[in-house]
Specification:
Its cofactor is Mg(2+); a divalent metal cation. Helix content is 18%, strand content 33%. It has 165 residues and is an alpha/beta fold. It has one domain (9-160): 3-Layer(bba) Sandwich (Glucose Oxidase, domain 1), CATH 3.50.30.
């Protein structure tokens, strides 16, 4: 999914801010993926310093979805790296938003997928199969709901209950 004029977050804010179905994430996420602009239906993982469920999600057909990973804002390890970014690209995910860290930033930047995160950390996460899939997660002032729609670009992240055009 490419960034087109009708999916720019600033334009979406101009058209929809203040409506009940529209949310704007607080700033703080940095762009790491090869695509700065991406959008799609939301799928979620709650992953407290354990990326087992992140891998399982990205192994599935993405069908243009965006995986929202709530790592609790932890900066103690990375939840996504080059292998998982490449897996997401291969399986048709539009992007990944990580409330936490990624690693292998240079390699992630060469993948044709959007990746936003709070920062980088070289340490990989644990593998305890802990966490939850496709549950509501809340961070950056937004409740990310599976099936709702996420739009991201260099200006930020917005979500909507319905697709926006």
């Amino acid at each position: 999914m490419s960034d087109t004029p009708d999916t720019k977050t600033a334009d979406l804010c101009d058209a929809h801010a203040g409506t009940a179905h529209f949310q704007v994430a607080e700033p703080g996420f940095l762009d790491y993926g090869g695509r700065r602009g991406f959008f799609g239906p939301i799928s979620t993982v709650r992953a407290p310093e354990d990326n087992s469920l992140v891998r399982k999600a990205l192994e599935e057909p993405g069908q243009g979805r965006v995986l929202v990973v709530d790592g609790g804002g932890s900066r103690r390890c990375a939840l996504v790296g080059d292998v998982l970014a490449a897996l997401g690209q291969k399986n048709g995910w539009a992007g990944v938003v990580v409330n936490g860290c990624i690693r292998d930033a240079e390699e992630v930047g060469r993948t044709a997928i959007g990746v936003k995160a709070l920062g980088t950390h070289p340490l990989k996460s644990g593998k305890r199969n802990e966490g939850q899939r496709d549950v509501e997660v809340r961070f950056a002032g937004v409740t990310f709901i599976p099936g709702h729609h996420l739009y991201a670009d260099a200006d930020g992240i917005v979500t909507s209950e319905k697709p926006l055009r």
